[in-house]
Amino acid sequence: DLLVHVRDITHPETVLQKASVLSVLKNLNLPSHLLESMVEVHNKVDLKESYEPTEENALAISALHGHGLEELKEEIEKKILKATGKKILTITVNLQGPQLSWLYKESAVQEVEVMPDDGTARVKVIISNSAFGRYKNLFPN
């Protein structure tokens, strides 16, 4: 669903390495959308003073120190959701009914926050548009 190209930006041949990787990927006859949506990651920015990527849409990280990892995670999540046609939703369900069980079967449940006062739960899910449509038809309230 997604290509992530992680580069060591401290390597003296980092630009040549990128060109080599892109050449190999193009020769694999991958779908063009995969190449166009690839996430470019510049690692080891902690070893370069005040590093800012000059390439459009490149993310600067330091895996060693954790710098930029949250932004990388968000970018990957955003692109995966777009590529798969899914979305993240928080749905309030009645715990007396079958909604929660249905969501576990038909989506990826991320979090469940039980609201004991009213017998409901807020459920954060990753769900496809078609599955969400079925959910709304089955559980209109």
Question: How would you portray this structure in words?
Answer:
- Strands 1-2-3 form a three-stranded parallel beta sheet, sandwiched between helices. A three-stranded antiparallel beta sheet has the order 4-6-5.
- It is α/β, with parallel strands linked by helices.
- The chain has five helices and six strands; from the N terminus they run βααββαβαββα.
- The chain has helices at residues 14-27, 32-36, 69-84, 99-106, 129-138, and strands spanning 4-8, 39-43, 59-60, 86-94, 108-115, 120-128.
- Strand 5 and strand 6 form a beta hairpin.
- It starts with a strand and ends with a helix.
- It is elongated and about 60 Å long.
- It folds into two domains: 4-83, no CATH class; 85-138, Ribosomal Protein S8, Chain: A, domain 1 (2-Layer Sandwich), CATH 3.30.1370.
- It comes from Odontophorus gujanensis.
- One of its GO terms (molecular function) is GTP binding.
- InterPro entries: G_HFLX_dom, GTPase_HflX, HflX_C, P-loop_NTPase.
Short note summarizing the structure:
Pfam families: HflX_C. This is GTPB6 protein. This protein is an alpha/beta fold and 141 residues long.
Rg, Cα atoms, Å: 21 Å
Average pLDDT rating: 94
Oligomer, anyone?
A: single chain
Structural class: alpha/beta
Count of the domains: 2
Q: What does the main sheet amount to?
A: 3 strands, parallel
* pLDDT < 50 stretches: none
Q: Give the termini separation.
A: 34 Å
Beta percentage is 25-35%
Order of helices and strands: EHHEEHEHEEH
Q: Note the overall shape.
A: elongated
Strand line-up across the major sheet: 1-2-3
Number of strands: 6
Number of helices: 5
